[in-house]
Amino acid sequence: MENANPTRTPLPAGYKPTANKGEANSTIRSQFQSVIGSLLYLCLGTRPDITFPVIKLSQYGTNPTQKHLNKAKYIIRYLIGTRKYSLIYKDKEGEQGFIAYADSD
């Protein structure tokens, strides 16, 4: 997916996943669960902006279709397009820095 075209949103506007009426292909199921697991890991640590779409797709983890897998890849394309986004904290002089204190008593 190195050459994938980036997207501006985690999922297309108005997208509503539908349940699979038949039995899922074991290869698609394995790939889908692997991708969703990796995306869930990112949600917890560094990318809370993708939490809703990932959770929505993860509901279809036991019986996914190729469409579900394609939408999981769509989220990855969103991550590719936003990988340079960051929050930068600056002090009054414009210097980059961040100081944190904690009281654990």
UniProtKB/TrEMBL annotation:
Residues 1-23 are annotated as: Disordered. This is Reverse transcriptase Ty1/copia-type domain-containing protein. It comes from Moniliophthora roreri (Frosty pod rot fungus). The lineage of its organism: Eukaryota, Fungi, Dikarya, Basidiomycota, Agaricomycotina.
